[in-house]
Amino acid sequence: xxxxxxxxxxxxxxxxxxxxxxxxxxxxxxxxxxxxxxxxxxxxxxxxxxxxxxxxxxxxxxxxxxxxxxxxxxxxxxxxxxxxxxxxxxxxxxxxxxxxxxxxxxxxxxxxxxxxxxxxxxxxxxxxxxxxxxxxxxxxxxxxxxxxxxxxxxxxxxxxxxxxxxxxxxxxxxxxxxxxxxxxxxxxxxxxxxxxxxxxxxxxxxxxxxxxxxxxxxxxxxxxxxxxxxxxxxxxxxxxxxxxxxxxxxxxxxxxxxxxxxxxxxxxxxxxxxxxxxxxxxxxxxxxxxxxxxxxxxxxxxxxxxxxxxxxxxxxxxxxxxxxxxxxxxxxxxxxxxxxxxxxxxxxxxxxxxxxxxxxxxxxxxxxxxxxxxxxxxxxxxxxxxx
Length: 387
Prior knowledge:
The protein is of the alpha/beta class. The chain is built from 6 helices and 22 strands. The strands form 3 sheets. Strands 1, 3, 4, 6, 7, 8, 10, 13, 16, 18, 20 and 22 form a 12-stranded parallel β-sheet that branches. Strands 5-2-21-19-17-14-11 form a 7-stranded parallel β-sheet, with no helix packed on it. Belongs to the ice-binding protein family. InterPro entries: Ice-bd_prot. Keywords: Membrane, Signal, Transmembrane, Transmembrane helix.
């Protein structure tokens, strides 16, 4: 009996050791070999820099009929030249507090994008590649031809490119989307300078440590943001990136509007009112069954004691009286306006956003479970020796 009890006890200890060790090992493996679901990154928070299509550290210079779709700013530099003939659809901020705050937020966003893990290493040449959402690391990026970004039908897909030095595109190169489109969730962290070649069609937020140069005719759906150096433009078009829209609203006031018969087709200055209401005008052919309640207006009751001050009349017919049948379209709309993606754009780009907190927790838990398994194994070994 004693031997059987000891054998049962050892088996239970072995089970207690195996479970936490296995769980801990799985957690550690998940840390080093994450699945695509766990590798999905959150957007990089641009803060107030999201209001700028062009933001520079030293100068902004332009040649030709460039169009800048958002604000343009510079800080700590003060020089902005070439506008006109260039056009800024937003505001120009030259070394003011707004530009300073945007530069601070840009630095935070740059550091956030630079620190995202895990990442996939890519070759220098991006032309001809088709990439899914994720974080990509490149020593120096060159784009010749077309780069395809596959959103995989995910409107929240995020692409982060961590480029150690330069980003250079050849003439007439392009970046395109398939299976969706969300340029505001594409981020190019450039370790030195970015140069878009003549006629390049580019997408995303360029965050360069030094400078951004857009050669003649290059277009950008995104932002050209330079931390320390200049942004140089030449007959370019920079448009605000369109984010994935919010889900459509479930209702926009249809439950309050009635059958749309009230208003100009019923009571009003043409029939009821203190000057016309009476047995000679307001009879069974106007008031009564078409608008007012069936127990009030009629040939015997319509008069100064019922119709008039309480319901009909030029000053009361509308939103204050005919509530059960609704009102016209001008009174409901503003209070039930559906929220659009632009209304809450700044709510999701708040700073900071980090990308590694969950992995730290998983790794810590896994190591703790492995340590617990080791401790139980040691205790079991000691107990076995003593018995």
